[in-house]
Amino acid sequence: MPTIAEQARATLKRLLELQLDPTPDNYRRIFDSLRGGSAEPAAAPPPGAAEWSQALRRLLDQWERSQAGLSQLQKRQQIEQLAALPSAQALWPALQSLLDRWSALPARNGSRHGAPAADAAPADAGDAAAWRSCC
User: Fold this and answer.
1) DSSP symbols for 28-43
2) CA-CA 20 to 30 A from 80: which of 19, 29, 129, 131?
3) Distant-in-sequence, close-in-space partners of 134: CB < 8 Å, separation ≥ 6
């Protein structure tokens, strides 16, 4: 039988693997699941279709956004880590945590956040002539 210190260490490692915040609720849930108890508290209902739909929209928005310090390769690797999770119960909090981290990152310098403006029109010949005359 592992000691309480070994169980606590295993719990913290699992929280890191699942990329969950070390909140008391997450810690208790993982600790209990490693001991063979319930893996999910009874009060937390599973996310429904509306929540998954909103999360997918948010994922696409953050995927297209250019964050400082985060490359497309890093995003792809983090999504692959999510895909390797064993269940929807593990996936949901990990996805929410990932999206919160991506959202908190500032946009890269010179990048636009979101879609191009609707009123953006291509440069006309007058703008091109002004540019050529100045340089």
Assistant:
1) HHHHHHHHTS-SS-TT
2) 29
3) none
